[in-house]
Structures are given as C-alpha cells and as structure tokens.
UniProtKB/TrEMBL annotation:
<protein>
    <recommendedName>
        <fullName>DUF445 family protein</fullName>
    </recommendedName>
</protein>
<keyword id="KW-0472">Membrane</keyword>
<feature type="transmembrane region" description="Helical">
    <location>
        <begin position="20"/>
        <end position="46"/>
    </location>
</feature>
<feature type="transmembrane region" description="Helical">
    <location>
        <begin position="415"/>
        <end position="438"/>
    </location>
</feature>
<keyword id="KW-1133">Transmembrane helix</keyword>
<feature type="transmembrane region" description="Helical">
    <location>
        <begin position="218"/>
        <end position="237"/>
    </location>
</feature>
<keyword id="KW-0812">Transmembrane</keyword>
<feature type="transmembrane region" description="Helical">
    <location>
        <begin position="243"/>
        <end position="267"/>
    </location>
</feature>
Length: 441
C-alpha cells in the first residue's frame, strides 16, 4: 500500500501519461455519471405513464413480506417486475396531496363555483335550451297526453310553449341558485381531483414537468457540475491509496450525494438566507409567482373546469342527490308555467300524468344544463376566471406549502432516486476501473 508521504506526483514516460490520464479522467467520469444519474432520474420520475414489465408468478405474496420501502417500487405489490414513472404511479395520491396542500388552501367549493359566475351559466343554459323548447314540449305532450295535445288548437299549443318559455329563465336560475346553496355538500374537489388524476396519470406528470421545467433542467446540468467537483477529491484519494475497490465504493457516495445536492438546491432553503453575503434560497421558490401562473393554467384548463364540475355534480357519486334536489326545486316553477289553469290542467290530464309531465320537463332541464356546461368555448371563457383565482391564491401560499406542490409528488420515493444514483455511481467506478485499471503511483 502506498502512503500519502510516499506518493510521487511526477509521472514519466508511458507510465506517467497513464497515471495522469487515470487521475484526470476520474472527475470527467464522475461528471458524466452525475449528468446521467439526474437525466435518467427524471425519466424515472415521469416515465412511462403506465406500468411496463412482466408478471412474475408468486411475486405478489412475496412482495408483501418485503420492507415497506421496497413495497413502494412501482408494480411490485401487483406482482410485476418493471417500472412505471414514480409520479404517474402515485397519481391518485398526488391528487390527494395536491388538494390537501394546495387546492384546499386556494379555495373552497363555493369559491370555485362563484368564480364560474352562476348568473352567466344560467344565461348560457337558457340560450342553449330555449331553441329546442317547443320540440321538447311537443315530444313530452305527445308521449304523455297525445289526445289532449292533438285536440288543442295551434294557438293553444303556442300558448303553452310561450308560457313555459317565459318561465325558463326562472327555472334555470333556480337550478343554479339551488346548486350554489348546497355546493359544499354536492361538490367534493378532493374526490374530483383524485379520480381525474387516477384516470389520467400522464396529466399529473405533465403538470409537474411544466411547473418545474426550469428547475428540472438545472438539476440535470448540476448533475454534471456536482459529479465533476466531487470527482476531484475522489481522484486524489484513489491516487493516494490505489485500492481496486475504492472507485466503485466512492462512486456510490458520489451518486448518492449528487442527487441529494440537486434536490437540496431546488427546494432548500425555504426562506431566503445570506451566506457569505450571497442571497440563498431554493431555486423553485425564487420564481413562485411564475410557477404559480403555470400551475393555475394547468389546474383551470384540465382539472377544475366548468365541464368537470358540472359532470361531477350531475353524474358523480352525488349525482343522484343533485338531480333529485333540482327536480324538487323545479316543480314550483313548472307549476307557475300552468298559471291559473293549473287546477283545470290537473283535472284534465289526471294528477299522475301531470306529475310525470312535470318531472319529464324538470329532468330535461337538468340534462340541458349539463349539455350547456360541456360547451368548450363557454368553458374556456370561464376557465380564465378560475385561472386568476388559483394563480393569485397560489402566489400567496407560504413557501413550505408552495414547495409541497412539487416535492410532495416524490418525497416518499426520493430514496429510489438516491439508490438509483448510488447504483449508477458504482457502475461508473467499475467502468473506469476496467478502462484505466487501478490508480496510484
């Protein structure tokens, strides 16, 4: 073993060139490996969107006996060997965290609903519904009271249609008012977001990619910088002690530390600090306002949209409750449409038939409300207001909560990235050993 005092730093002839080449290539190797570690680490975070691998018989029960950390490897608990991006694999969990850490602090269900301007929604529903109303009434009456409807003179039919049309704004306004009054019971943003993220895991990855695009690129770049800088002391130690196992072992340390430093650089410290007169703060936190705008656009355009809120209200887990509530609320308005003739109409068509006609019109009004909420152009207009709300509230979040918007996606799985860095660092050390041999003088 060559001690530090016996090291001869002068290289001569071929051995000298080999010695210098061995020493100088170590930082280059560790720099390239650091770049590859962070580049492939980002790939592991976001790709692939769905699990890719093979099913191994007997692996599923065996996986349940493994340590909890090992069970977090995507696909393992389902008996598969392969990989799915960490963020897409945790899509539902990410949705839950996104609501708890960010969206719940951005606004309540009532805030979201009011931001969509219920009065404008009601006016839009009337615009969509009104042209089809004569045909709708004709269809319902022909089905429920064909003889009475056929015997009515044309002016009588027109009077019925006109009376219902006059009541339409009141009917639709009652729909939006009733939803607004009970919105906290009918709309569950957390469940809505979780279900949407679970169904679209690629969307979760896309949001995180775009919000943190600059920091993610910097993380790859700093992988080379940190790897190169860490490679300098590695080269010195390897030359001093010239043991064959040093480079692989130190490669593990370099790989682990490179990832750790990259993560720290992006997210820490939360609050600005002065270090040697230089202002230091996590890179992601430095551009909170800009990142908040990107996040708000993604949330308003793809997650908490007018169409998705309407779909959740009318077709989601509480859709039956919503529709029943609206139908009950609409009955008085439909009675008003009959006006002073209501008792006569009830007698003429029969109480049971009148109830069916009234319920049919109410159900159709609810259905047309859903159709209007699916209008893409109208939805885009309303999303601008939602985007303003989410952006403003996200910009006001404390740094700790803002960081959670990104880091919560993979905090519990960071060990996989560090372990991946350690494995690649070990492989880099072995590769250098195979190419250049053992160092030392």
């Amino acid at each position: 073993m060559v001690t530090a005092l016996e090291v001869d730093w002068s290289f001569t002839d071929v051995d000298g060139v080999r010695g210098w080449l061995h020493v100088l290539t170590i930082p280059v190797f560790t720099g390239v490996v650091g770049w590859l570690i962070n580049w492939s680490g980002l790939w592991m975070l976001f790709s692939p969107e769905r699990f890719h691998g093979v099913h191994v018989p007997g692996l599923k029960p065996l996986a349940r006996a493994l340590p909890r950390k090992a069970q977090e490897v995507p696909g393992l608990l389902q008996g598969g060997l392969g990989w799915q991006g960490i963020v897409p694999a945790r899509a539902a969990k990410m949705g839950s965290i996104a609501v708890d850490k960010v969206i719940a602090k951005v606004g309540t269900p009532r805030d979201f609903y009011e931001q969509l301007e219920p009065e404008r929604i009601a006016a839009h529903v009337v615009d969509v519904f009104e042209p089809d109303l004569p045909a709708l009434i004709d269809e319902i009456m022909r089905r429920e009271q064909p003889r009475l409807w056929r015997d009515l003179p044309p002016w009588g039919r027109r009077a019925v249609v006109r009376r219902v049309q006059d009541q339409l704004p009141t009917v639709v306004q009652r729909i939006t008012d009733e939803i607004g009054e009970h919105i906290d019971q009918l709309l569950d943003p957390k469940l809505m977001v979780i279900e949407h993220f679970r169904a679209h895991p690629g969307l979760v990855a896309a949001i995180f990619r775009e919000v943190g695009a600059r920091e993610l690129r910097l993380m790859v770049t700093f992988g080379f910088v940190f790897g190169f800088l860490l490679g300098v002391p590695v080269a010195v130690v390897d030359h001093w002690f010239s043991a064959w196992w040093l480079l692989p072992l130190l490669g593990v340390v370099v790989g682990w530390v490179t990832n750790k430093l990259g993560m720290w650089l992006i997210f820490e410290p939360l609050e600005p600090r002065r270090v040697l007169g230089v202002r230091v703060q996590g890179l992601f936190l430095r551009r909170q306002d800009e990142a908040a705008e990107v996040y708000a656009r993604n949330i308003a355009d793809d997650v908490i949209t007018l169409e998705r809120i309407g779909d959740f209200l009318l077709n989601g887990p509480r859709g039956d409750l919503t529709q029943a509530m609206l139908t009950r609320a609409l009955r008085p308005a439909i009675d008003d449409a009959a006006g002073p003739l209501l008792p006569v109409v009830r007698v003429a068509v029969g109480a049971g038939r009148f109830e069916r006609i009234r319920d049919d019109i109410a159900v159709e009004a609810v259905g047309r409300t859903e159709l209007a909420l699916r209008d893409p152009a109208f939805g885009r207009e309303q999303s601008l207001r939602m985007r303003e709300l989410v952006a403003r509230r996200t910009q006001e979040l404390p740094p700790a909560d803002f960081v959670e918007m990104m880091r919560s996606a993979f905090r519990e799985d960071e060990w996989m990235l560090y372990a991946h860095g350690a494995v690649m660092g070990f492989a880099g050390g072995v590769l250098h050993l195979l190419v250049f041999g053992v160092g030392g003088a």
